[in-house]
Protein 1
Amino acid sequence: MPEGDTIFRTARALGRALAGKPITGFHSTFPLLTRFHDDTPLTGQLVESVESRGKWLLIHFSGGGTLATHLLMHGSWHIYRHGECWQQPRANMRIVIENSDYLAVGFRVPVARMHSALSLTRDTKIPRPAIDALSPEFDAEAAARRALAHRDEEIADVLLHQSVLAGVGNVFKSEICFVTAVNPFCKVRALSREQAASLIAAAQKLVAANVLVDSGDAIVTYGGRKRRTTHESDPGASLWVYGRKGEPCRRCGEPIRARLQGPDARITFWCPRCQLMPDGSDVDG
Ligand SMILES: [Zn+2]
């Protein structure tokens, strides 16, 4: 699943191609979207802005509508010049928004809905900006309080809850726990307020660092290498622990461990020496 920083970059690219320009064409395989377009033509409207909220991508139109899409595992948005070859088969096309310069094509987008300003605020699945680690309106104190409320859950699982904070995916989860020296399997009730605050601060910092204008698609948390040199076969090369099972910890040399965690059995990586449980024990015993 794309992480929050990936959606942020997609929103930024779509914004550059679409914002401020009149729409010259709109097509979709979603009946509800084409019906909306039939009733309230998007053609002639401007795209006012494109925004990411956690893993949702919102395209705001000058007529007051907002197209909200979620890419789940396989969806993606591409931007093409007119006449340019698409990188996916036409059968994968779900949404096309055209202007005089570009086509924005949503391929295999599984979730798309059209919102009014009111219905957008009422859609509880789409995080408010205050919850999004990448939003200027993000409220870190409130996020730490929400995390601490999940007392009986393990912290790495709680970092994935989009209702606690939006934008953290499975790669960041392990990295955030490592940089704050918190064991990912630690129950939230064993965390101090300060630890909760530093976890949220680390989340904000790591996710934000990955949306810098020149950053590529690879996630970078480990600063030992230059950001631009991360498009290599080893995805763990730019990370502290994720994808590095059995390799030496970058801080202490202990082999990194990996284990499936939580109700969704998502993989978690950690250093058993740098990230002790609060009672000093080792998770695997
Ligand atoms: Zn270590």
Note: The chain is about 25% helix and 20% strand.
Protein 2
Amino acid sequence: MPEGDTVWNTALMLQSALAGAVIRHSDFRVPSLATADLSRWRVRGCASRGKHLLLRLTGPGDGRAMTLHSHLRMDGSWRIYSPGEAWRGRPAHLIRVVLRTLTTVAVGYHLHDLALVPTDEEETLVGHLGPDLLGPADQPGGWDAAEAVRRLRAQPDSTIAEALLDQRNLAGIGNLYKAEVLFLRGIQPWTPVGKVDDLDSVVDLAHRLLVANRGRWTQATTGSLRRGEEVYVYGRAGSPCRRCGTLVKRETQGDRITFWCPQCQPEST
Ligand SMILES: [Zn+2]
């Protein structure tokens, strides 16, 4: 599940593979960019902002700065191949864009919200986001715990689970970290934000979990990277809670699935 850490890793991968290189051929397979041509454009770098990817480019000749924006949502991914290497892993019909340089082929599968905008207009795509859990604190939209808490507090009637997923409050948390943070803090997912005593510690934990997981592709909140031991409640409905043995529950909440332990995360009174 692509959450902020996965997107951050993807940005680093694209940065390592493409930064400084000139695109020799581009192939967009989405109607809105069918005529876009990035050949001879140079890749300046790639950054993430919450769950959004920003591939920054400089145009040939005029040095125009443009940004190729993409969002992975539930199932998107970028893969890097060598020229001539077989493109394994994902079906070809999911390909949305192919960028070729002299040494690298970058293929974007099932990307969402693919858009090409002037770099100085990036904010029109990501300006609505709350502080980015993995964003440098000294950059626009970067991590600012106090601001994240302030935004959460402004919605006292929202459930804490939905408020944590709302990228306008803080950017980068997906369904897995939402479930795990609430378990670790003993908070029932339907608790109104206004009834959560220590929002600072919820936000602080979310930040620490994402930071701990960036740089690797396995998402773990338990301290164990062993298969089947990585998480406390996410995806574990019907299995015993690792702390108390009570069966983990799952239920639809809004348009997402929530997992929690009814014993460790009692309803607030
Ligand atoms: Zn439990």
Note: The chain has a mean pLDDT of 95.
